[in-house]
Automatic annotation (TrEMBL):
Protein name, UniProt field: Putative 2'-deoxynucleoside 5'-phosphate N-hydrolase 1
Top EC class of this enzyme: hydrolase
Species this chain originates from: Flammeovirga agarivorans
Enzyme nomenclature, EC number: 3.2.2.-
Function in brief: Catalyzes the cleavage of the N-glycosidic bond of deoxyribonucleoside 5'-monophosphates to yield deoxyribose 5-phosphate and a purine or pyrimidine base.
InterPro entries given in the database record: 2'-dNMP_N-hydrolase, DNPH1, Nucleoside_deoxyribTrfase
Keyword Cytoplasm among record annotations: no
Pfam family, one: Nuc_deoxyrib_tr
Length: 130
């Protein structure tokens, strides 16, 4: 099982530690192709935007499932979700805010969950993989 985890980078890194904790949890279910999203000291200087885009799109194509944490709004995450839905990938979104974008929560192909804590998202993720 190849898992594409999506989370904000240039949109803001407030949840980077949470992404790392979620990635650590989902690793028991397969290979997380985008483990770098949880890196606290993420450096993107040595790679061009074109390389980032093409690499991530290839991982998206390769993936069996998309899991996105969308609490911190990110253009890149929204773009990945749209491309993933077009590729008919099973897509799951999680947010702690009262609402997220209607283009995400209103999309019938995306399963969107509100949660409050790391423990709660772990249970929801376990349910998805079981
Ligand atoms: O350096 C990067 N590496 C990378 O993999 N991404 C991808 C993965 C994330 O799910 C998403 C984050 O988009 P943004 O940077 O617009 O918040 O884009 C985005 C960047 C920077 O835009």
């Amino acid at each position: 099982m190849k898992i594409y985890f999506s989370g904000s980078i240039r949109g803001g890194r407030d949840d980077a530690k949470l992404y790392a904790d979620i990635i650590e949890h989902i690793k028991q279910y397969g290979e997380v192709l985008t483990e770098h999203i949880g890196q606290m000291d993420l450096q993107e200087n040595e790679i061009t935007d074109r390389q980032i885009h093409d690499q991530d799109l290839n991982w998206l194509i390769e993936s069996d499932i998309i899991i996105a944490e969308v609490t911190v709004p990110s253009l890149g995450v929204g773009y990945e979700l749209g491309r993933g839905v077009e590729m008919k990938k099973p897509t799951y979104c999680f947010h702690r805010t009262p609402q997220t974008s209607a283009m995400v929560s209103g999309c019938p192909e995306i399963k969107t969950y509100h949660y409050e804590s790391l423990d709660e998202i772990k249970v929801l993720i376990d349910q998805i993989f079981q």
